[in-house]
Amino acid sequence: MQRTDLKGMTVEELQDFLRPLGEPAYRARQIFRWIYKGVEDFDKMTDIPKSLAVKLKEICYVGKIKIHRKFESQKDETVKYLLLLQDGEVIESVKMEHDYGVTVCVSSQVGCPMGCAFCASTIGGFRRNLTAGEMVDQVLVIQEDIRKRISHVVVMGSGEPLLNYDELIKFLRIINSELTFNISYRRVSVSTCGIVPGIKRLAEEKLPITLSVSLHAPFDELRDRLVPINRRYPIMELLDACKYYIIKTKRRITFEYTMISGINDSKECAVKLARLLKGILCHVNLIPLNPVRERVFERSAHERIKLFEEILKNYGISVTVRKETGADIEAACGQLRRSFLNEVKK
Fold first, then answer.
1. CA atoms of 18 and 84, how far apart (whole Å)
2. Is 60 annotated in some ligand binding site?
3. Count of domains for the chain
4. Is residue 333 annotated as part of the catalytic site, yes or no?
5. What is the tens place of the pLDDT at every residue in 286-311?
6. Residues 16, 151: one domain?
7. Is 11 found in the same domain as 146?
C-alpha cells in the first residue's frame, strides 16, 4: 500500500484525509501545526491519541527534503543550499538576510522548460514539477538550519511557477497560514517569464503578492531570442495581462531586466523600455547578469547600467539596480545545481 505524504496538504485537505478515520476537524489543525514545527514522527505529536499515531504510520508519512550541501558567501550573509529530494533529484534554494528580515528564494520545478538564453536553470532541461510540500520544505529546512524566522519568500529559483500553478497556490496558502510560518502575502514575490494565462488566473486569486515579470527586452525581436516564450505570448499581449493583474489586485508589478553587455543595454533599449512601460503601475529592477560558464553573455559595465537607470528615471519610471548577493557561491538560479550535475557526470 502506497502511503500518502501529508506535507503539502492544506488544513482543509488534511481534514478531508482524516474524516474517514472518524477524527474531528480540530485534529487536522493539531497535526498541521506539528508538521510545520518540523516534527515528522507521529509518536512525537503529543496531543494526538496513540491509537491515531499508529493508524497514521500505516497510511501516511511526513516527507522531508535534506540539505545535501551548503555554500556560505564570504562577501555577505547569503547561503546557497543544494537540497536532496526523496526521489534523488536535487534543487537549490537561497537564504538572504536584509535589514528588514530573512528572505528565502524558492524553486518551483526541478530544472526549467523555458529555455531563456542566459539562464543556468534551463541548461539541463526540465525534470518535473515540485509538490507544494517540497516547496514549503525549502522554507522549513532553511528556517531550521539558521534558527531564525523566515519573513519573506521569493519564488524566483529554478522553474516557471505559473506552469506549476495548483501547487504554487497551495504553497502560498500554506506559508501564509498562522499555523505555519504566518508569512504575509505582501512579503511574497512570484516571478514569471510571462505565462499570460497564468498571470490572468493569478489575478483572479486576488492575493496581495508581488508579481515579478522577467521582461529582459523592450521589443519582440530581441525578447524572442532571450526569452523564447515570447514567441507564444509577445510583449503587448504580456503587458495587457499585466494591466489586467494590476486592475484586479491593485498591486504594482515589478519588471525584471537582466543587463547583458551589447545585447539589451543600449540607450535605445532604455528609451524603448521607458516608452513601453509609461503609464503602467510598475517598478523596474535592473539585474546585473550573473555569468554562466556555458553561456557566452557578459555583464553590462557598471557605467552602462547607471546610464540605463538614469534614462528610465528621466522618463518617470520607478527603477532600482538589484544589489548583487552571493556571487562568489554561484547564487543565481540554476548555477549550483548545474555545477553539481557536471560533477556527477565526471
1. 29
2. no
3. 2
4. yes
5. 999 987 777 789 999 999 999 999 99
6. no
7. no
